[in-house]
Amino acid sequence: MSITIGAITDVFGINGVVKVKPLVDDELIFKQLKSVALVNKAGNIDQKKVMSAKQHKGLWLIKLSGVNDPDDGQLLRGCLLQIEEGQLPPAGQGSVYWKDIQGAAVIDMEGKPVGTLADYMETGSHDVFEIAGADGISYMISNNPAHVINIDVDTKTVTIDRIGLVGGE
Question: Which end of the chain has the least Cβ crowding within 10 Å, N or C?
Answer without folding.
Answer: C
